[in-house]
């Protein structure tokens, strides 16, 4: 009797079993090396490319990665600070300072306290000035990255000390309004309580004083015709900064009337003791006599508005007074008796017709004063918008 044939069902292999045998072997995963274990020569090279090519927002994202990235890129985040009423509380969140609202004032009533405006806007309004929420002042005390959680210290004192230490990295500071100025002053006052640490803004190179700050009633309450200008608590603290370069907006000086000496005095309260390498005025108006310049500065620049332009009110062209401005600047230089003072007048196209002859006469006058030959181009640099 022939052997029984196995049925198809009994001889067929289970589908799951055939599939499992048909599965390919798992692919080998390339070995990964944690970034923190790379040699310092390699990480330094990578970081140098990041420093050159990435934006401020990128730097803020990088400090969320790990402690190593946080330590490396926090100086880049704080390198340039533009302070204004709506962002100071966000930027300095965690710093233990007493900031109180500025009282509307035409004199110095609000100077008994360090004023500050309303709390910085959150969400969409922050995005209007190019920053996402918490860009400068976010809570990064505990972050998770590939290296796991890392703790920088989340108690209030640690946060306060860490934020103050970050301000040592600021190299460019823009004070837009009085709220920003009073907040910086409060931080400077607070830092004096701990003399063991480097003070905030110790590496400051450039300081910019904005129109809203200089025009404010707190900084510039009245002209010298009415009262004797006196320094405030805020301006006294700002005077302790030590930038190398300062620029400011001259248009605030005409708040009361042209050529007002009180404005010069208020400016001197802030920057009169700075040991500056350069000083720049922006917004010099047509017909302005040579503006105030801090004592001892060797490089002076004046970005002027177009002179002799069309006057809509008078329906005529204004008279060009650039030569008078040039004369005032020359007299300033001769009074200082310093041959190494360098001055630039920028944006006055009409100086091109008079500058050469006038500079030659000034050079001769300087020669008689010092009995030494001076190069004409060491006296002046006159540039128009095209040459910039």
Automatic annotation (TrEMBL):
The lineage of its organism: Eukaryota, Fungi, Dikarya, Basidiomycota, Agaricomycotina. SUPFAM superfamilies: F-box domain. InterPro entries: F-box-like_dom_sf (IPR036047). This is F-box domain-containing protein. Residues 1-32, 102-157 are annotated as: Disordered.
